[in-house]
């Protein structure tokens, strides 16, 4: 089939030529201008949008960095703010003490075997305490070191004082002041030189705990028991004697555990267990009287209580 | 007639201005890419090449200059808005006349003066012919005779063609499209397009006094 393509033959070419001669209408110049202007405007708009996008992208590059910086600032602010509030709310000596006091005694031996850097970390430190802050740690460590240093100093010079003056605010003293090589159960760095690990209730050295008071008898926990103020010990003994009708001389403190009570009732009011109260540092003092054993909840000064169910 | 271009890079403006002076050195597709890239003058060149053809394509179909200008503007504005979708692998004129043809169809659909218009009707004295007679008294036989006397002979003869034949002829002559391109654009077989073109040329030759 060699049929000629339409429009390509000589006759059709003549038709095309005649067509182009007669069909020469054009759109108006006004319309042309309008369309060209629309095309230029489209390009201008695109450029403007592109510029805006570029400017936007220039700034959006820093958005993640800005967000990260904001989060970091917020975190630092919270960390710095919240512990301060707790310090103010708590009548206790310092936060480190609170943190240390909340470690259950039953966990002490296991924690005592932890490496030094872990053993010094209180396991129940309030959630927002700056656990990861080296500066806060250092401050807490220094604070505890000062406390323990003073405490140990008092401990070492107390026998004579206790016997001579019976001062109520002196801690229970060590009977052997020559025993200065007090090996701590844990190796807390700040107080290592003093032989006392500052941040755990398992930190009282064995030799020191032996001298908690003249009436304290070693028990399985005695080696780990911290000292309590002599006045507090006397108060406990007196109360125990009053409750049991026994001779005060027959009352013996057989165990002391440091703790932090969740409320001002020294843990004796279960209704207040979940109240948002400041922690109260104190002790659980177990007292043996003839025929009975009493368990006292105390603060670290002069408040004592025997809970109803104990 | 612009050739098919492969990968058309954005061209330097100076070279384009030189091409403007020297003639059709650059393809429509290259100019479109340059315009997409932000060269506003590239569009002016493309528009200059195709403004007459598109306008006449619309004018021969709608037969009203004001309407044709309105449609012409719509076509180009639509093309401007859709510039990002232009694919340089396709021929620009095919794309342009597809837009124009679709706009024409939309116009007919919306026009109340036309009872029935279809580019697919190949019948002699088809719907478009009837429509023309209804909407334009000058296109009835008597009017056509007057037009033949007063106006261009071929233009008047084209108005008597079925819409599909007229469409194929206009796409071929005004748009510069080949049979294959018209077939692709109209979604009709190439043989059908050839047939339409043959009928159209035969009618126009007859109008010119050539019975062959």
Model description:
The complex is a heterodimer of chains A (310) and B (212). With 310 residues, chain A is an alpha+beta fold. Chain A has a domain at 95-305. Helix content of chain A is 45%, strand content 10%. Chain A contains nine helices and four strands; from the N terminus they run αααααααααββββ. In chain A, strand 2 (280-289) and strand 3 form a beta hairpin. Chain A is rod-shaped, with a radius of gyration of 41 Å. The model of chain A is unreliable at 90-138 and 155-225 (pLDDT under 50). By secondary structure, chain B is mostly helical. Chain B has two domains: 1-111, Rna Polymerase Sigma Factor, Chain: A (Orthogonal Bundle), CATH 1.10.1740; 117-212, Arc Repressor Mutant, subunit A (Orthogonal Bundle), CATH 1.10.10.10. Chain B has eleven helices and no strands. In chain B, helix 2 packs across helix 3 (40-62), helix 3 packs antiparallel against helix 9 (163-173) and helix 9 crosses helix 11 (190-207). The chains are: A alpha+beta (310), B mainly alpha (212). Chain A binds chain B through residues 5-7, 11-12, 14-16, 18-20, 22-28, 31-32, 34-36, 38-40, 42-43, 46-47, and chain B through 35, 38-40, 43-44, 47, 51-52, 55-56, 59-60, 65, 68-69, 72-73, 76-77, 80-81, 83, 152-155, 172-174, 179, 194, 197-198, 200-201, 204-205, 208, 210, 212.
The CATH topology name of the largest domain in chain B reads Rna Polymerase Sigma Factor, Chain: A
Structural class of chain B: mainly alpha
> What shape does the CA trace of chain B take?
globular
Query: What structural class should be given to the helix and strand makeup of chain A?
Result: alpha+beta
CATH homology group of the largest domain in chain B:
RNA polymerase sigma factor, region 2, helix turn helix motif
Shape of chain A from CA axes? rod-shaped
| CATH class descriptor name of the largest domain in chain B | Mainly Alpha
The main β sheet of chain B shows up as: none
Low-confidence stretches of chain A: 90-138, 155-225
Domains counted in the coordinates of chain B: how many? 2
Spatially, the strands of the biggest sheet of chain A line up as: 1-2-3-4
| Total helical segments of chain A | 9
């Amino acid at each position: 089939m060699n049929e000629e393509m339409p429009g390509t033959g000589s006759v059709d070419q003549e038709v095309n030529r005649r067509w182009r001669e007669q069909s020469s209408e054009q759109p108006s110049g006004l319309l042309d201008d309008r369309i060209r202007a629309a095309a230029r405007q489209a390009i201008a708009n695109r450029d403007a949008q592109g510029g805006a996008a570029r400017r936007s992208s220039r700034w959006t590059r820093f958005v993640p960095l800005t967000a990260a910086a904001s989060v970091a600032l917020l975190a630092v602010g919270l960390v710095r703010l919240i512990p301060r509030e707790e310090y103010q709310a708590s009548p206790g000596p310092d936060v480190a003490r609170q943190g240390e006091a909340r470690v259950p005694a039953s966990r002490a031996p296991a924690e005592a075997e932890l490496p030094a850097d872990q053993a010094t970390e209180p396991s129940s430190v309030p959630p927002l305490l700056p656990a990861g802050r080296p500066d806060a740690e250092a401050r807490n460590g220094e604070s505890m070191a000062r406390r323990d240093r003073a405490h140990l100093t008092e401990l070492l010079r107390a026998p004579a004082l206790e016997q001579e003056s019976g001062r109520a605010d002196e801690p229970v003293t060590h009977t052997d002041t020559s025993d200065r090589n007090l090996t701590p159960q844990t190796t807390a760095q700040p107080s290592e030189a003093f032989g006392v690990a500052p941040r755990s209730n398992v930190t009282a050295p064995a030799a020191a705990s032996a001298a908690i008071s003249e009436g304290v008898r070693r028990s399985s926990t005695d080696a780990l028991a911290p000292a309590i103020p002599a006045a507090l010990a006397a108060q406990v003994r007196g109360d125990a004697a009053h409750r049991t009708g026994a001779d005060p001389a027959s009352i013996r403190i057989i165990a002391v555990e440091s703790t932090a009570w969740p409320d001002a009732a020294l843990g004796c009011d279960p209704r207040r267990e979940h109240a948002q109260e400041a922690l109260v540092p104190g002790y659980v003092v177990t007292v043996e009287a003839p025929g009975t054993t009493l368990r006292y909840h105390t603060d670290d000064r002069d408040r004592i209580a025997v809970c109803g169910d104990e | 007639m612009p050739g098919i271009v492969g990968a058309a890079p954005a061209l330097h403006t100076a070279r384009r201005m030189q091409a403007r002076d020297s003639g059709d050195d650059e393809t429509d597709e290259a100019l479109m890419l340059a315009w997409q890239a932000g060269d506003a003058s590239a569009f002016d060149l493309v528009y200059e090449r195709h403004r007459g053809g598109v306008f006449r394509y619309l004018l021969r179909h709608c037969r009203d200059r004001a309407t044709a200008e309105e449609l012409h503007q719509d076509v180009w504005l639509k093309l401007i808005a859709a510039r990002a979708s232009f694919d340089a692998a396709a021929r620009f004129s095919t794309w342009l006349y597809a837009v124009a043809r679709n706009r024409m169809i939309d116009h007919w659909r919306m026009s109340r003066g036309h009872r029935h218009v279809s580019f697919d009707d190949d019948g002699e004295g088809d719907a478009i012919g009837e429509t023309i007679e209804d909407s334009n008294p000058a296109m009835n036989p008597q009017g056509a005779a007057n037009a033949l006397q007063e106006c261009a002979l071929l233009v008047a003869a084209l108005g008597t063609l079925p819409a599909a034949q007229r469409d194929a002829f206009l796409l071929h002559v005004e748009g510069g499209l080949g049979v294959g391109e018209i077939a692709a654009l109209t979604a009709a077989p190439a043989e059908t397009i050839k047939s339409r073109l043959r009928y159209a040329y035969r009618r126009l030759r007859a109008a010119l006094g050539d019975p062959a």
